[in-house]
What we know:
By secondary structure, this protein is of the alpha/beta class.
Amino acid sequence: MPPKMTTMLLILLASVFAALHVVSGARSGPQDVGVCYGTFSDNQPSAIEAVNLAKSVGIRRLRLYGPDHNVLQTLRNTGIEVMLGVPNDQLQWMSNQNNANQWIQEYIKNYPDVNFRYIVVGNGITPVYSPNSQFAQFVLPAMQNIRNALSASGLQNKIQISTAIDQSEVLRHSFPPSQGEFRPEFRQFIDPIIQFLVKNNNSPMLVNLHPFFSYLDFKDDIPQIINQNKGGRDARLDYALLRSSETLVQDGQLKYTNAFDAMVDSVHSAMEKAGGNSLDIVVSETGWPTSGAHAATIESAATYNNNLIKHVQINGTPKRPQDRVETYIYSMFDENKKDQENQRHWGIFWNNKQAKYPINFPKH
């Protein structure tokens, strides 16, 4: 082969491997379970204390809902992988390319020693039925502008771009999981986003999903399971807490022992129907509260989060058994400024930095 062709081939292979490195995310092997660092509170520890606490217990991935210079400064040279959000109220501003360039410079390029993994453009936005629907028209333009800004900086193969959707809001059907389907009135919003993800190194779809609310509100994700488990426990709660080893839901050939897998697969089914069958799902938010509602107890939160960590380390879902689900637990601390009582007590740590219950984050 002529030297010039050999050089061109090597360049091509290098670019392919770089893209594959971003796409794979090692999702076929054990995943570090991340934690969401929500700060809608007036009594939390400082950013330095929070990041040091995360490091001390082995948390290697953090989701930040918006940029904060104090937090980013503290994350320098820690090795912690960061999912950085663009807040909903900044999306219109980010739909201008110059503004997106400025944002990337201020919060990404100025922190070359922070290990950014994702930029999350908007959180839980739906095109109708919600106060945040006003932001829906700006999600895709903001994603495109951020992609352009990253590409201009040579970071397009290092940091992935996505948005976070709420499983309970975007699906018309979620049970059984194979019938997962996006709401028809959402398709004009969600389909172009899916195509953007497909065309940009198959970036994953980020999904917030909460078996707790499905259990609490008697949603279809957790059906009325007739057979009670041994000991007379609530089978629906066992299904929600990943506490059963028995098949509680049968969907064709697929057998489900827990709601987490079923809810993830319901989104996979919906995305397949919308041209996103090549995309992975990252669960960008899940957890269990310790107070504020029925079944919101320290015992249940400890059960859910510890079972979840063990589960995603070694298992995929019935629909995609070989793919480990990258997952982020909500949240580091309680957030006393949330509107509703059942949203305020999701922290795995008290605000004095003491663990509410034993929780183990594996070290790889």
